[in-house]
């Protein structure tokens, strides 16, 4: 539906399909996770969150007495809480299918009510396990710490500051809280613009919007996923220094600092996972082809 390639902040390629237009907004799916984690860094700069190494229950009282009481903010960001969670999109009984339908009876946000009932599977900080529920907890944490709706904080700290070209929206759950592990709707160029913001070090008009060293930590491997790949603070990492935000059905923001490169994609794959029809590997191959083309172009210019 959309493909944008930026190099040095300049548009090298911009294409649209599936009747989508530059002024349209497309659902991010889990690309939103990288926005949500970035808001944690901003809340630290703003003095709302004390540290990455305090218990998440310090900010979400509903988690006190649960397995999450011993989990730090950093472990939540890296999905290494050790709490059992099933993210199987094809299983109607998985946690990812059930938690969004959970109805709270205790005045807690629904995701807190659901997550507090989960059991520990591993010691905290040792095992990576992908959990959209935990990103939703991060959203609750930021909202609780700042005293603001997550959408309002996103608007004031990212949308307005980095000059997004048009308004975005964020889908709410039944209890009125943003589904912070998913579902920001924005223009394709604005997804690319967020990638450019990260590439440029989180600095706007000379002001650092993130703590010192945040981007270096957030976008490099904090815990291993598989050979050559890792996970940072809700960013997928590559051993060559690249990093990416990814969402099911083919949404993505890929950043390669070495080549000063940002690639944003919006797609409509027929599989939530993408591996079933080989789409994820083909996207990775596309990223490599773009980088190879840029390297060849650079070599040609050096020859001149």
Describe the structure.
With 304 residues, the protein is of the alpha+beta class. Helix content is 32%, strand content 17%. It has 9 helices and 13 strands. The chain has an 8-stranded antiparallel sheet, covered by helices on one side. A 3-stranded antiparallel sheet has the order 3-5-4. Strands 6-7 form a two-stranded antiparallel ribbon. The chain starts with a strand and ends with a helix. The mean pLDDT is 94.
What does the secondary structure layout of this molecule look like, with pairings?
Elements: E1 2-7, E2 10-16, E3 26-27, H1 32-45, H2 73-77, H3 95-98, H4 110-115, H5 132-146, H6 150-159, E4 169-170, E5 184-186, H7 188-199, E6 203-204, E7 207-208, H8 214-218, E8 223-226, E9 229-231, E10 236-238, E11 243-247, E12 251-256, E13 261-266, H9 279-303
Antiparallel strand pairs: 1-2, 1-13, 3-5, 4-5, 6-7, 8-9, 9-10, 10-11, 11-12, 12-13
Helix pairs in contact: 1-5, 1-6
């Amino acid at each position: 539906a959309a493909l944008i390639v930026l190099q040095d902040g300049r548009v090298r390629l911009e294409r649209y399909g599936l009747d989508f237009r530059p002024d349209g907004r497309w659902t991010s799916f889990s690309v939103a996770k990288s926005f949500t984690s970035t808001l944690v860094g901003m809340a630290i700069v703003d003095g709302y969150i004390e540290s990455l190494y305090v218990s998440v229950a310090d900010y979400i009282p509903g988690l006190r007495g649960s397995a999450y009481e011993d989990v730090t903010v950093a472990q939540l960001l890296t999905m290494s809480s050790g709490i059992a969670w099933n993210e199987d999109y094809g299983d109607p009984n998985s946690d990812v299918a059930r938690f969004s339908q959970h109805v709270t009876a205790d005045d807690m946000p629904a995701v807190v009510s659901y997550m507090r009932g989960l059991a520990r599977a591993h010691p905290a900080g040792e095992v990576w396990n992908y959990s959209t529920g935990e990103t939703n907890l991060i959203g609750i944490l930021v909202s609780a710490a700042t005293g603001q709706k997550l959408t309002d904080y996103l608007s004031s700290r990212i949308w307005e500051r980095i000059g997004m070209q048009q308004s975005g929206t964020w889908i709410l759950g039944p209890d009125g809280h943003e589904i912070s592990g998913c579902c920001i709707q924005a223009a394709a160029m604005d997804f690319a613009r967020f990638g450019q913001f990260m590439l440029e070090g989180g600095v706007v008009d000379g002001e650092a919007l993130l703590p010192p060293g945040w981007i270096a930590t957030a976008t490099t491997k904090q815990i291993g996923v598989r050979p050559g790949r890792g996970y940072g603070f809700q960013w997928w990492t590559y051993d060559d220094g690249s990093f990416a935000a990814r969402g099911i059905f083919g949404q993505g923001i890929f950043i390669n600092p070495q080549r000063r490169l940002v690639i944003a994609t919006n797609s409509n794959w027929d599989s939530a996972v993408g591996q079933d029809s080989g789409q994820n590997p083909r996207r990775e191959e596309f990223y490599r082809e773009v980088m190879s083309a840029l390297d060849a172009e650079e070599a040609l210019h050096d020859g001149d």
